Amino acid sequence: MPDLWLVVLCILLAGVVFVLLRPKRHHLPVYIGDQEHISKIMGSIEMKRAPWEVFDGLAKKYGPICSFHVGRQPVVVLSSSQLAGDLLEKRGDIYSSRPRLIMANDILGGGLRGVTSPYGDYWRRWRKLQHAGMSARATLAYREHQTLESTVLLRDLLRHPNGYRDIIQRFSASIVISISYGRRASSLEDTVVKANVASIEAYLRAAAPGKFLVDAWPILLKLPRRLQWFRHAADRKHAKETKYNLQLLQDVQKRMDAGINKECMASRTLEALAEGEYEGVNKVELAFGVAAPFAAGVDTTAGSIEYALVAIMCYPSVARKVRAELDEVIGRSRLPTFEDEPVLPYLQNFLRELVRWRPVVPLAVPHSVTQDDIVLGACIPKGATVYGNIYTMMQDPNMFPNPSQFLPERFDDKALQNMVLPFGFGRRSCPGAHVALQSLFIVVARLLWTFDVVGPNPDPNAHVNHGLVRTPAPFKFTLRARDDNALKCLETEVAHADRKLLEWE
Questions:
Q1: Which among 114, 180, 169, 193 is positioned nearest to 142, based on CA atoms?
Q2: For the segment 106-117, what is each residue's pLDDT rounded down to a tens digit?
Q3: Residue 314 counted as an annotated binding residue
Q4: Cα 445 from Cα 305, distance rounded (Å)
Q5: Which of 26, 174, 381, 425 lies 20 to 30 A from 352 at CA?
Q6: How much is the pTM?
Q7: What's the rounded Cα separation, in Å, for the pair 249 and 238?
Q8: Using an 8 Å Cβ cutoff, are 203 and 104 in contact?
């Protein structure tokens, strides 16, 4: 008899645990089912599709908003720019946090990676640092280096077109390192590049869903620290990264003291810190804040430059229009500069269309809501993960007729010219957008002024998935000088760039 009561008690306890731990719908908006149902939906859409393509399929079936559970976690997908604006921007006070990544952000990152940090005091200090270094005004200081590096990029692509990926990555890495520390990267073997790549790879491994028990059971953090077996290796890596980032900051301070530094985020913020402008910010926060552009800016900028090459090859008539504008405004005796940008409206529209046509972060970084919110009569619960489905928004035929086509002319509509959707939403939008657009302008302007891009048309829909970032599938091309004078102008600029870039070594 006692055994029977024990069995009954176990069944009752199991029932209580099931009720407590099962996902709660909270009357989620357009709820489309549990994990089994989601698996069927994803399976019904073509296999090997990227997450944004799956979400696009859900939007076509269920409309501009839908929700489901992944395990116990409620997930909401916004596929309408109107809804994304209403929630992620207008209600940014509650939609600006991030899903918690205990191992990746809290432990390995020490809570210092602003991109994935929760919305709060630390994130506000971090954002202030990013704005100081990459606002529209601040980025003007980086134009000289971007111009010099763009010249080297064209020289290297002309010589080694088959190595375009590494060449473009090197360019992108050098730009963000110069923004952070006022120095360049002459190769991908640069110590700062290698250290940052290793850091990103470790972070991505730590963020892999289901890899670490503590992400599912945060109560493990209540254990005495020495008994938290899951964190010891990550703590050592964080200590090593902290030491390295502080050393880079110290190197900038030494160059400042010697009067040989180039203006950069580190120099600006060190000066501001010395003057008491960053209340509550310590050197460790500063070191991680200054290091942030690498993780967010290298793959994204490089991916956009690759997509520019794809667009040029797939839409030659558009490329001819850009070249015609460049020739009319600039002539054939010099390469374009940033001073030409205001008088090149078609090129500006080309770049706007580029980031619309192929946004390199199609789902942005997911948001998290910090309190229950009523949307369309349904409840998005506190802690829900909210995706802004940029991919689908950029393919909205009501906003962008013939969305699959590359049509810069659509941005003759002035209402679209200030569109920032490809760079994220509200308070968590990309702080490096101005830097990225400057890099795209100087590279594309100089590329099309100097060269024809020759080769078989790549498949514009084929891509490589790098987590949140996508880039084009590998393609082949060569560069052919438009005329002899173009090549002579480039050679002259390359000689100047090689000399001048020694100042950033």
A1: 180
A2: 999 999 999 999
A3: no
A4: 12
A5: 174
A6: 0.92
A7: 16
A8: yes
